[in-house]
């Protein structure tokens, strides 16, 4: 499992005084950064090779400014050309959001998905 801590910013709050729902998907993307590194060491945009197919977020509880949020990321299902990242957000010892992202291993020159290699699959399996 991958862990990262987000410090909610004041600008991420909304009129109701909690973290806006548009922020959590960005935090989950930050949690996927080490996964991107597996596919593209150095994360150079000219060699980028993963794309987002689908995301979902379930808001379990309100998230507040002034308290860090721990993002927990793990790899779920790994298919032939896609994989799923599963996310949890925790604040003050409570689960506040869950979500997932379906990622596609993609060849931008050919404009099509590509087969996940055995070496990449082995690295993803370490995050299950």
Automatic annotation (TrEMBL):
SUPFAM superfamilies to which the protein is assigned, alphabetical: Thioesterase/thiol ester dehydrase-isomerase
Q: Does the keyword Hydrolase apply?
A: yes
Per UniProt, the keywords (alphabetical) are: Hydrolase
One matching Pfam family: 4HBT_2
Is Nuclease tagged as a keyword? no
EC number assigned by the record: 3.1.2.-
- Point out the coiled-coil segments of this chain: none
Q: Which domain of life is it from?
A: Bacteria
- Molecular-function annotations in GO: hydrolase activity
InterPro entries per the record?
4-hydroxybenzoyl-CoA_TE, HotDog_dom_sf
Identify the enzyme class. hydrolase
Which family, according to UniProt?
Answer: Belongs to the 4-hydroxybenzoyl-CoA thioesterase family.
Q: What is this protein called?
A: Acyl-CoA thioesterase
């Amino acid at each position: 499992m991958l862990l990262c801590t987000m410090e909610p910013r004041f600008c991420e709050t909304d009129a109701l005084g909690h973290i806006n729902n548009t922020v959590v998907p960005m935090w989950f993307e930050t949690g996927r950064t080490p996964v991107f590194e597996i596919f593209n060491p150095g994360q150079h945009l000219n060699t980028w090779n993963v794309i987002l197919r689908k995301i979902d977020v379930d808001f379990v509880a309100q998230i507040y400014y002034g308290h860090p949020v721990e993002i927990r990321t793990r790899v779920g299902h790994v298919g032939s050309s896609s994989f799923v990242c599963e996310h949890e957000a925790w604040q003050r010892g409570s689960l506040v959001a869950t979500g997932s992202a379906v990622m596609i291993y993609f060849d931008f020159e050919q404009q099509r998905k590509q087969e996940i290699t055995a070496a990449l699959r082995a690295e993803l399996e370490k995050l299950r």
